[in-house]
Amino acid sequence: MSRTIAVIGGTGPAGMGLALRWARAGETIIIGSRDAARAQQAAETIRQRVGDTTRAGAPAPHISGLENSAACAATDLLVLTVPFGAQAALLKELKAAIRPGSILIDATVPLAASIGGRASRTLGVWQGSAAQQTAELVPKGVSVAAAFHNVSADILNGDGDVDCDVIVCSDDPKATEITMELAVKIPRIRAIDGGKLENARIVEQITALLIGLNIRNKGHSGLRITGLPKEAYRSA
What we know:
Elements: E1 4-8, H1 13-24, E2 28-33, H2 36-50, E3 63-67, H3 68-74, E4 77-80, H4 84-94, E5 103-106, H5 130-137, E6 143-146, H6 153-156, E7 165-170, H7 173-183, E8 190-193, H8 200-217, E9 233-234
Parallel strand pairs: 1-2, 1-4, 2-3, 4-5, 5-6, 7-8
Antiparallel strand pairs: 6-7, 8-9
Helix pairs in contact: 1-2, 4-5
């Protein structure tokens, strides 16, 4: 089933990478940005990389770029990929544009800036996690799922398979299900139900650990969960 996905903050590395992967899988993509022209430029870049057909041989999906509020108004499936410092202000700005009943997938990690522009520790969030802050700020009736924190943006923006599990946390089973379905559209990703949204704080913190590993070892590490029964893993 093809969906229209609006990637809010989609001109950054994580947003571009997820948009590229889902476009290759045949999903309709809207790139959201504060600057509509920048969003359109990012959409064109993805169109050129996808080409005329998806990897399954189907015609290339529609890929467009819109200002963030217009992107929110255009679909009820949103993915938030912005730096933590911009998260709260942006959600307050977009609140009126988010459709009732929407699902918002939050990939925000509350990272602290450090010398040289790299961050390898997380900040405390009063609500418990960045995802819980999002849930507090979106309109009533909007479901929030936390996911994609531990996937390397560099790998997403490449052409190879993504060797990583995606842990999905949400208080809404439907939001969990849809997020897991989207995750496994990316080659080699497995999706795992991580339980309630409050568990997102643990998953967000793992990102800082992975960043530290990557800095020390000059790599692009991901996360694999082992030892669960096979039915716990969702894969393509």
